């Protein structure tokens, strides 16, 4: 794959229906959303409100989209959104959100209203894939004309509260498969040349270039540095092609790119990125890093509010 070739499509020509169908035929279920995610959400019903905010359907497959809320929702308090699994293959985002709910969330009762969506993209979770079944990246689809139902469903969920959120933390990973599979597939899908990139070794965050909040981003990085290592800048002073503006911090224009982290318009918003393929990190560390990132974000925002 590193040669820039991809087994589907013609170089230089964007995919049509036939190529997308060929790609879809290669995807198979590798783990269970019901067993690994829904069962843990169900166990939270004793402590939180659990709701189904939609049903995702691809062919015969149906996936309930689940959100977990503070049991007592107080309009006088600030609100926070935590999302995981926007890219279904990014495992620690899902399990880090669940770990936060199981271990930490109760400690914020009476301080902040919590809305947590542990797995935005269950089809991708089961197939360990970045895209949905239509070969669309949900994390470029958080806009009115977005092509991913996963994103549209979340937009509908938060729309009544848009403007009320103080915090939004969107939990992600950067993996070796980004270079071995997903970026070559993206280039092939769009009929563009594949340009190899460099996978950063460690945790980093992405802030909004229109509202960077560097002290907030740095507070997350500092807290996570006690759990796992922080990604250094490369020789150009960058991480994944973007300038490092503070240790472990880069910036993207959230709303312009249609990213999940821009869906609420929160004052304090961040995407997290862990590196589960590092020889210096375990899956448990990655999950904990995500949960710690959430608590650090909440603690900073509540102190600043």
TrEMBL record:
InterPro entries according to UniProt: AstE_AspA_cat, Peptidase_M14
Coiled coil stretches, renumbered: none
Name of the protein this chain belongs to: M14 family metallocarboxypeptidase
Peptidase M14 domain segment(s): 29-305
Keyword field contains Metal-binding: yes
Family of this protein: Belongs to the peptidase M14 family.
Keywords: Hydrolase, Metal-binding, Zinc
Source organism (scientific name): Pseudomarimonas salicorniae
Pfam families found in the cross-reference section: AstE_AspA_cat
Family annotation (PROSITE patterns): PEPTIDASE_M14 (PS52035)
Cofactor entry: Zn(2+)
